[in-house]
User: Which sequence fits this backbone?
């Protein structure tokens, strides 16, 4: 039964990633992959909040499978992040490539911590 929760979350997360990525990227006239950056940081914040909620007993392991593994797993995208970073470097936009790596890691970890802290403040 658990795998159905993951599938259900993924069915929402994958199109949400695609649509959000396209919407964000269409608003920026830049080679920087803002769409992927945004979905990854938002996904990190959501996963941090969800993990905090589970730790506080406010959400179940089934909710974690549905929203964490399923939705956030499909929403965020390490492969696209890697490909876009490689493409930036190959196209001579090495500064953007480095900014993408450093910015994504720093913002993602900060978002996860912020989400976890918000959940702890709310439910602890």
Assistant:
């Amino acid at each position: 039964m658990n795998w159905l929760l993951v599938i259900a979350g993924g069915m929402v997360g994958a199109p949400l990633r695609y649509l959000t990525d396209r919407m964000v990227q269409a608003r920026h006239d830049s080679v920087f992959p803002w769409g992927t950056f945004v979905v990854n940081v938002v996904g990190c914040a959501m996963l941090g909040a969800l993990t905090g909620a589970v730790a506080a007993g406010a959400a179940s392991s089934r909710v974690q499978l549905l929203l964490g593994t399923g939705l956030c797993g499909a929403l965020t995208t390490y492969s696209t992040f890697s490909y876009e970073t490689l493409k930036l470097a190959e196209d001579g936009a090495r500064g953007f490539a480095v900014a993408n790596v450093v910015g994504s890691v720093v913002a993602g970890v900060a978002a996860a911590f912020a989400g976890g802290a918000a959940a702890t403040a709310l439910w602890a």
Observations:
- The CA atoms of residues 40 and 76 lie 5 Å apart.
